[in-house]
Write a structure and sequence with these properties.
Blueprint: H1 7-28, E1 33-39, E2 55-60, H2 62-68, E3 74-80, E4 84-90, E5 102-103, H3 112-124, H4 144-151, H5 158-161, H6 166-186, H7 200-216, H8 219-236, H9 245-264
Antiparallel strand pairs: 1-2, 2-3, 3-4, 4-5
Length: 265
């Protein structure tokens, strides 16, 4: 028998699923989201403290962060429970956590597409995205029930959720997105072979990356990584006949899906 989650746990999950909704839309736009986090543990702030009581954030890979702010230690897309969304570049010597933030200023819980538009602008010019002026939409520690109700709209229904946390849902989301991307690449109509010059160490490193992917990925994504590793080994050994197992599997799966769709019509 499972116990009911505490208020802070429930709020944490609601924040996390809001982060997931934004992450899903950004991944669809090609933004490399690497993680999400939500915190519904209410922090009591001292007078004059510029922090926030509850929050969440999305993290990106290093290349994306450096493209936005080359001089920052890291860059998050941050959600404050009092001020809404901001792009948050951080440096180790920052005295003010929000000192370099660029705020959307579109309300406390803006629609997902509004956040995506903000990130799109930031990719072109971070200095022109949003404003440096921090808005305040609620007082720290107040109206938490109302905030939770607004965020609950992003929590999947119980049948879809099946008891999973927002973190598990994010892992499944990333797996689906990259499975689709890999399948799309392997199903490309362009069959032209290309020559890529690699040093032996680089080729071996690529193989290790594929092996690592097999330990992390599930379902088809792990299978594609395994078949690509086999294909790579085949080429490295200069086999008489080149192996294209990953591509063959991807195209076979696509054909099966099309056949099912046709039978269902």
């Amino acid at each position: 028998m499972t116990s009911e989650p505490s208020a802070s746990q429930a709020l944490t999950e609601a924040i996390g699923h809001y982060m997931n909704a934004v992450a899903a839309a950004l991944l669809d736009e090609g933004v490399p989201v690497t993680g999400v986090q939500g915190s519904g543990d209410v922090r009591i702030l001292a007078v004059g403290d510029s922090g926030t009581d509850v929050d969440g954030h999305l993290s990106f890979n290093t290349s994306f962060e450096r493209g936005l702010y080359p001089d920052s230690e890291n860059v998050d897309l941050h959600w404050s429970g009092t001020s809404g969304w901001c792009l948050l570049p951080l440096k180790n010597d920052d005295a003010d956590f929000y000192g370099h933030a660029r705020w959307i200023g579109a309300g406390l819980v803006p629609p997902v597409d509004r956040v995506v538009s903000f990130v799109a602008t930031a990719r072109l010019s971070p200095a022109e995205a949003g404003s440096s002026e921090r808005p305040f939409y609620r007082t720290s520690g107040s109206d938490l029930t109302e905030l939770h109700q607004r965020l609950a709209a992003f929590v999947p229904d119980p049948e879809t959720l099946r008891g999973r946390t927002y973190g598990v849902c994010f892992t499944s989301l990333v797996n689906r997105v990259y499975t689709a991307r890999v399948a799309g690449a392997l199903n490309s109509p362009n069959d032209t072979e290309v020559s890529v010059a690699l040093r032996p160490g680089e080729l071996e490193a690529l193989r290790h990356f594929l092996e690592y992917t097999q330990t992390r990925a599930t379902g088809l994504l792990g299978a594609y990584a395994r078949h690509l590793t086999e294909d790579l080994d085949n080429r490295r050994q200069f086999a008489a006949t080149s192996s294209h197992r990953a591509m063959e599997v991807a195209r076979s799966i696509r054909k099966q899906l099309r056949d099912r769709q046709q039978r269902g019509k």
